[in-house]
Each structure stands twice: as structure tokens, then as C-alpha cells.
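Closing statement on the zinc ion sub-project.
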Amino acid sequence: MREASCPQCRGAARLVSNPYYGAGLAVHRDLLVCLECGYSGFSENDHDPDATPASAPESAFRRLLRRLRGD
Ligand SMILES: [Zn+2]
């Protein structure tokens, strides 16, 4: 498991593979999940709203992130 620093709090964050990457809509290979503040987002191009798939399955995505954070 790779690690990165959180863009929000600079705490330890995990980089996890995006299960949707390559599925057609997902353009980000990795997801960043902060273990400190709970921030979650894409590890790259997070600043570019145009890169976010508009029709991604949001609820499934949020469920995944909750599971990764251990909520
Ligand atoms: Zn954080």
C-alpha cells in the first residue's frame, strides 16, 4: 500500500487503486484517502473539475470510500 500526504491536513493518507479505473468513465488511477481528517479524493487532477466523471456511480463510490475509512 502506497502512502501520500493529505492535501487538506498534510496527514498520512493512503493511495488505493480506483476500482472504476479503466471501466470507461474513471480517469484517475488512484484514490487518496486521508487517515487523519477523513478527506477523500482523487490523487491527481483533483483540482480539475472537468476530469471528474459526471456520471460516475456516486453512491457506490461513496460506499467504497466509507469502507476504506472504516466508518
Ligand atoms: Zn487529511
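The chain has a mean pLDDT of 77. With this model delivered, the sub-project is considered complete and its resources will be redirected to Aim 3.
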